[in-house]
Amino acid sequence: MAYCTYTDVQLEVGTATGTATTSDITSRIAVSDGEIDDLLALKELTPPASSTYLKRASVYKTVAWLKRRQSHELSRPNSLSLGGDISFGTSPEAEAKAYEEKADAEMLKYYASTGVDVLPSDQADVTRADADIGDMRLDTTTDPVFFTELSL
């Protein structure tokens, strides 16, 4: 399922795509969408006909790939010195990781919108147990730990 288009990616990165062609980016979108489908399958979710969250996740995953490709092909190096005091630097890997984190955040938003538990089941059970313990009330008049902590 295609969650985003080449135009969506281009709106995010502009036209500076290094040596990546429209075909390269379209192919990478298919890979990104496949990764999203795999994540949905792990949560036993059927891919929806459309979702803004998944569209953004697909765009961000594709942009992360594009940033790494630009860095590797040196069309967007980490730094460039033109001689003398003229130089500039970028961090394509940091940008790629930031886009991956944005994609992960969009996936979490999608999961939340469907009511799916975002934690693995064993972690969810621990979290629920911690929440249950947090609901217990201390008897502040007789609990010696309460008085000890207060006197410190």
Number of H/I helices: 6
Spatial strand order of the main sheet:
1-2
Strand segment count: 2
Rg over CA atoms: 23 Å
User: What's the story with the biggest beta sheet?
Assistant: 2 strands, antiparallel
Estimate the helix proportion, in percent.
Answer: 55-70%
What is the element string, with H for helices and E for strands?
Answer: HHHEEHHH
Class of secondary structure makeup: mainly alpha
Instruction: Kindly estimate the percentage of residues that lie in beta strands according to DSSP.
Output: 5-15%
Distance between the termini: 60 Å
Short key terms for the protein model shown above:
single chain, disordered C terminus, 6 helices, two-stranded antiparallel sheet, mainly alpha, elongated, 152 residues
Write structural notes for this entry:
The chain has 152 residues and is mainly alpha-helical. The chain has a domain of 103 residues. The protein has a two-stranded antiparallel ribbon. Strand 1 and strand 2 form a beta hairpin. The protein is elongated, with a radius of gyration of 23 Å. The N and C termini lie far apart (60 Å).
